[in-house]
Design goal:
single chain; about 180 residues; alpha+beta
Length: about 180
Amino acid sequence: MSSTLAMKNIILALVSLACFSCDRPAELDPDKIFARFHTILLKGDYSVLAAELHPSVLRSFRERLEFSTEQPREGSWFTGGKDRHPTKDELAKIDDSKFFVTYMTGESEVIGNPFIERYRDAKVIASTVGKKEYRHFVIQTEETVAQPAVLSFMQVDDKWLLIFPSFVDLHANRVRAAKGRIPEG
């Protein structure tokens, strides 16, 4: 009798383990959230990437880099004309998402996708589920072995959006430093 009970327990454990290890939708499998985002990041389609960023991330990017549109190169990305930077009125008509897409597209035409070299080999070394609507990932690259980064995502409606700390802010601060401005945040 006890061997039958033990066999039932083993079968139950194996079935439970099989169900746990099956493919789970992204909302239940944190690693799929990062894998999807990582693929989008490396593609260089900044319209798609902007849709994966929380509005606060897009706003922060703009606040950190809007000053650079006064430079001829960056200004031309927004005006289409060389040696002309956009007026405050022209910039006011551009939402934060469009600013991000325009800036990153222009920069990529000059230097390529800046995220490829830095994040190509990014691997999740740990992940955790915060509150129901938050997922956090510790990622490591060859460049950041000693200092892994944490990326946090927030569920908004049915999408997982990057919120903080943001690689976008890190990139904006590198650009600010290269242009002689003090990095923010």
